[in-house]
Amino acid sequence: MAKKETRTLSLVLIDPKGKTVSYSIRNPKPGLDKEAVENAVKAVIDGKIFATANGDLMALKSSQVVTRQVETLE
């Protein structure tokens, strides 16, 4: 049996109309903590890196690291 584990950083942000926008980042840096993620997202929001049809992103609603383990049956 082969095992494969993947990690994804899932971010949910809010636009000016209160709608949510989701981003997933594969293989995030190991050991990320809440403060590091919030600081990085703040830099993205302040730099107006991404925008939606409703305008620039406003705030981080939630973040999580999702770990997925797959076992291939042989």
**What fraction strand?**
over 45%
Class of secondary structure makeup: alpha+beta
Strand order of the largest sheet: 2-1-5
Based on CA inertia axes, which overall geometry fits?
A: elongated
Q: How many separate helices? A: 1
Helix content: 10-25%
**Count of strand segments:** 5
* Strand/helix succession: EEHEEE
Protein name: DUF2922 domain-containing protein
Organism: Megasphaera hexanoica
Pfam family, one: DUF2922
InterPro entries: DUF2922
Ordered list of secondary-structure elements with their pairings:
Blueprint lengths: L1 E13 L5 E7 L7 H13 L4 E2 L2 E2 L2 E14 L2
Antiparallel strand pairs: 1-2, 1-5, 3-4
